Amino acid sequence: MHPSRRGFLLGSTAALTLGGASLSVHAAETDSRFVLIFLRGALDGLSVVEPYGDANLKLWRPNLLLPEPGKPKGLNDLGGFWGLHPALKTMHALYLANDLLPIQAVAGPDRSRSHFQGQDMMEIGAETRMTSGWLNRIAALLPANPNCDTAFTMASTSPLILHGPAPTTTWDPFHPRPHVSAGFYENIVAMHANDKLTGADLADGLRERRYIDRVLAGTSYNGVANGFPRLARAAARLLAAPDGPRLAELELGGWDTHSGQVPRLADALATLDAGVAVLRADLSDVWSKTAILVLTEFGRTVRVNGAAGTDHGTGTVAFLMGGAVAGGRVLVDWPGLAQGQLFEDRDLQPTLDIRAVAKGVIGPHFRLSPDNLATVFPGSEPVHAKSGLLKV
Amino acid sequence: MDFHAIETTTSATVPNMVDMALHAFRRFGFGRRGTEPLPDDPRLWLKAQLRAPDPLLGRPGPSMRNTALAAERFAQAQKSGAPLPGGFAGLFADEMTASLQYAVSTDLPFRERLVWFWANHFTVSARGGPWPFGLNGTYVFEAIRPHVTGRFADMVKAVMRHPAMLDYLDDTHSVGPDSPVGLSQHRSINENLARESLELHTIGIQSGYTQHDVTAYAAILTGRQMNTEGDQPGFVFRADMHEPGPQTVLGHSFPAGFAGSEDALEWIADHPATHHHIATQLVQHFVADSPPPPCVAKVETTLRDTHGDLTQAMLTIIDMDEAWQPLTKFRPPAEYIIAVQRALDLPFEPGRALLDATDDLGQPFRNPLLPNGWPDTAADWVAGEPLLKRADWAMTQASRPNAPSAEAVAAATLGDSCSPSTRQAIARCPTPAEALATLFASPEFLRR
Fold first, then answer.
1. Is the dihedral of CA B111, B113, B118, B119 positive or negative?
2. Which CATH class is domain A4-376?
3. Which residue on chain B is closest to A202 by alpha carbon?
4. Which B residues 268-297 touch A at CB under 8 Å?
5. What is the reported pTM?
6. From the CA of A89, how many Å to the nearest CA of chain B?
7. What is the pLDDT, as a whole number, of residue A11?
8. Cross-strand bridge partners of residue B227
9. How does pLDDT run across A179-221, given as a tens digit for each residue?
10. Which tens digits make up the pLDDT trace of B167-193?
């Protein structure tokens, strides 16, 4: 919540420096919404946006392929070479409405193939370790909101991507509340007032809890599946509020398909798609101002392993979607799957840095300057923002 | 009270024995239970726990046979069309609730903290699939609990042959490509366990191992399989799935076969990078979020000199002055829940109340998101809404019948460490329950 949260460990000087940076910058007022959906566990991009037109694919993974477009339970065609996994029904409709942009053969700069290292570096958004995440550093560039933090996650714990100089919120819409006297929480906040670790966080937390309670009052979850789709509903309600937060992080697991990949992936993708359907419906009033980035820490091996699964790899898929996104096509510089074209003879060769995508979205979306973008992704100057990702 | 100041002050005041005893309860245990007697010598009290037998190991505990039977009943019901039993869900809830209740009631809380620490270090998360879920209690009982005061290498070896870990990190899917099974079924290596074992369990990612080391180590770990059927379900070594030929890891060659793989585990567990890695984590857990390098060096030296004797490592920490600075560590949610229960000293609530509380407060027990387990610093746990949720839950607990008074709990658990601002906040509360909940939500009670 509080600027000192990460800085605390570094000592007060670092905290003040980071806090000062967040206070000194005030970008123009923005009405844009940005959602990041982190698919933790490493998504096999080749199974989700499948290059069915590449003859090499079936040499590496014959038992992982889905029927081609037009066949029963087959892929949904994305222009003659690519097929979208059939579990992604809503996302296919978004593609047809030019609101979904699949991005293939993308990766962050990390090559460790470690979930933790890969996720951490994806969340940090730099090539060397930092104690803050890039979604937080965007929030630090946006105007402060008196009601609540600019960025939030719908979860019980805060991910690294939201750690850093800007205050951010961790919100669980299904947490039960006890009956207490008026003033119970205010008294607790006062008790912590002089605690450098907790004081400011608790005060901000209570102010924000009162606001979020008002926004979410009366939200119905009837007909919405438990888990990710319900969290998507609460997140969308907050994002749709005119005076609410602007950045949301959602996460979904189930992608670490070392075995039995085909059925496991179908289940996980169906959950993702159900959440996307909720976001699309609940954000309809602000859809034209919305960009959603779906990413994962890295891809998986091109070859199937001994358990009808895949192991940790490199290049994979990401998605951009929303009314603001110039979709209806596949963004790819296809590296090919022939022997010799694989990264380290095992993985899809990445041909696009995820930071180029992120910079290409958030730059125009939040009217951030190149200097701003360099603070969001330190050291990324050689990675140029991809142009043309948004409709305007 | 200025907690930041406490962290930067070094032994400016010599604490008295009562303060030291209360600190020992908090820092090395889960907080004082009711008004249990204060040890005369807190350091000796801790050291005695390292030498006392673990009472849970003296009686039957969770077993793979129980889990396998539950799986069998489920499969039979599926086949016959009978109503499906609960699978592993009931087993998991019962075993985890029992573990949480044991942490509340034990007279050896320091030993139990070690079990929690190492279970997290060698995480098998319940979300990892049916066997990591159903075997979670068995795993900690068989692979972690017996070794927390023994040799680190013995814990590594127990972990690396336990079906829960082998399945969680996919070693049961790993087959040597040149083994008989690999050749006939065209199966190959799954390197998941090898990579996490190096990165998380032993030498750590800073040690600079390569993809070659991971691949070779994965070959060494082939053939480690689980048998889920019959009277003796458990670990089995399948020579016909084991990659033939010697393998070189970190420049050291190991012969093929089960004995060779055990040698590799011994060697990696006693590697200097492993000593440094686990010393850093122990000091971060028991001393300070930013582990003081001299403290890490002391524990590292102990581990090197004793070849990984974990009792000696903990004796080194107990004897450090830095470990006796009060209230410098923040309680993660699960520890906080146990501390509140011990302070209340009431009969247990029915069902899986404690397990549900760990979900609600953001640290679902034995169910972290990833194999690196739960984080261990205040920065990972301090935020407004999560702390308000602790206050919410504390209120439900403080409202239970026969709960003690806030003043009594403050005196029993904090003594002179209870600050004037906390005492004032308690005094302002209109009801005894809100006063107690406020104490549980205080800066002091959130720390250990």
1. positive
2. alpha beta
3. B384
4. 289-290
5. 0.81
6. 27
7. 25
8. B234
9. 999 999 999 999 999 999 999 999 989 999 999 999 999 999 9
10. 999 999 999 999 999 999 999 999 989
